[in-house]
Amino acid sequence: MKTLSTFCLALTLGASAIYAQERKDTTSLQELLVTAPVKTNVALTPLDVTIVNNEEIEKSTETSLLPILQNHVPGMFVSERGMEGYGVSGGAAGTVNIRGVGGGNKVLFMIDGIPTWAGVFGHANPDTYVANGVEKVEVVKGPSSLLYGSSAMGGSVNIITRKQSEEGFSGRARAMFGSYSTLKLNGSAAYKKDKVNAIASLQFDRSNNNRPGSDFWLWSEYIQLLYSPSANWSVGINTDMTQSTAHNPGSEYEPLENMWTKIGRGTASIFAHNSYDIVHGGVQAYINWGSHHLDDGNTPGQEMNNYLFNLTDYNMGFSIFETINPWEASDLSVGLDFQHWGGHIWNTPKPWFDIENNDFNPSEAWHHENDIAGYLMMQQGFINELISVNAGVRLQHNSKYGNVWVPQAGFILRPAALSEIKFSFSKGFRSPNIRELYLYRPANQDLKPEYLLNYELSYRQTVCDGNLNFGAAIYFIDGKDMIQTQMVEGRPMNMNTGSFINKGFELDITWRFHPLWQLYGGYSYLHTNNGNVLYAPKHKLDLSLSYSPGNFEFNLESNNIMGLNNGNPFETVNYSLLNLRGAYNWQTKVPLTTFIKIDNLFNDKYEVVYGFPMPGITVMAGLEVKF
């Protein structure tokens, strides 16, 4: 350890001396901080957590959060079908797997702690998770059902928005244009005056995409207002809305014509947050809603279908939560959650279809479910917090299937400064969604929740005055009662019959070995007894090297996937991508940055979703102004 400390000290001092000669003054946007209340500090939980911060989000120049998360979170993978957009319905992408658990609604996405899954089909809404206006993202790799209930079975992703910390007005605007007539525009503005804080952001994306007939466009709007009447209280409202249209030409092996989706999604909430010496928490009420309209398309040369599919759905509720510090080194988190979710589906005839002289199936249905839950989590530190013991339980009652108990236990050991060992046992579960319970032929109203038991051990160490951070984690996941379709009395029916065992390990390192250079590496290995899980690679390796001399910024990134089941019935997929980003920060009165991003430098041919070839080399260039 003495040798390592000496090495780190010499490295840091030497690099600082060089940096002092090369550094130039820069101007940046005012710091933006977290604003909405959260149920608990993720550092209190014994689960393995990865935080993707604002610097990494901004440096990527991506407008969608999912590729950023995939490249910075070992064990996480996201399916893609083209240069832009994920879509819904047939051929959709945006499936998120964490440690081989995902698909459907097994990974919970939240915006400031507000769940954002669709109320009928239960899936996340990948096109709505944009990077504009985001301060950081907290990814919990492992069941988060103790705090969040259903849909957090495989993990949780909490997208935390930002607010301005200093008095006055600030903002930024960015424009990008590149391959396949892709255009991306976004901007945000923030204002703080005494007790009032406001932020608004707007984003527009459009692309012809890399295949004919796969055009995509998206609008996204976000507004938050915050008022702090005292140092201990703040209240606020926010709304986040997205409108998108995606055309889908089908796979190369089963092409389609006239397939499109028009999606409108929104989230709104009102919240109050308190913070005192021994207690902090809040209350929030929210609604997440959607309006979907789509045409399933037709095989080329075949007659067009005669209907459009329509859906409106909702997921609304409230949460009350407090964390209390009753005595030294203790944290007691308690909470109450209520959710009401469901929706309406129906078909409408196309204008040319003669409904009076032909049979037409409106396929109309309304369904909803209710959940109410209470939870308690306690953490107690011992021996000057050398070790902290964590335990908790949640009881959730569903109007359809009854009660579910969710236990969690573990410990956090801190054997040295900036060193942490975590062990946890936790249960995760997923409620059957409206489709699985009520819709279409396999539906079964007697379904019970899926669940898994998760065991994990992780280690994290920071040395060299914070310039070197590395971690490792191993896990074992035992899944039970997975919902699968089987033949029962001559007809297909959804049944709780599936099971799986996933196990593996993850490694990551971030090393600033010179003030101008930084290296990141992340590796994950997954083994499952259930064959190759769709969109969950056996090996995943991400590497990036950043160099920032003077006003320049360069980033070289390598993404390597091995043993991916992309739906190809004959073989698994391996591919490696090399991406480059370069930027220059102009020292003008109003800070201006110009940049260029080149993806897939070696023009590799690959498919993440079978039958949907990804683009070869692509180029995007743009500029950003801050004020």
- In whole angstroms, the N-to-C terminal distance is 46 Å
So how many helices?
5
Count of strand segments: 33
- What form results from the Cα inertia axes? globular
Structural class: mainly beta
pLDDT under 50 segments (min length 5)?
1-35
Helix content bin: under 10%
Radius of gyration: 25 Å
The chain-level mean pLDDT equals 91
Strand content range: over 45%
What composes the largest sheet?
22 strands, antiparallel, barrel
Can you put this structure into words, describing what you see?
7% of the residues lie in helices and 59% in strands. The chain is mostly beta strands and 627 residues long. The strands form four sheets. It has a 22-stranded antiparallel barrel. Strands 1, 2, 6, 7, 8 and 9 form a six-stranded mixed beta sheet that branches. It has a three-stranded antiparallel beta sheet with strand order 3-4-5. The longest helix is centred in the N-terminal third of the chain and has 21 residues. The relative contact order is 0.14. The N terminus is likely disordered.
